[in-house]
Amino acid sequence: MIRDATFSDYEVLLPMLIELHERGEFAGLPYDELMIKRCFVTSIAFDHGYARVIEKNGKVQGCLIGIAAPNAMGINIAQDLFTFSLIGTHILIKDFIRWAKRYGCHGVQISDFTGNKRYHRLIERMGPKKSGINFLEVF
Question: Going from the N-terminus, what domains does the chain have, and what CATH number goes with each?
Answer without folding.
Answer: 2-138 (3.40.630.30)
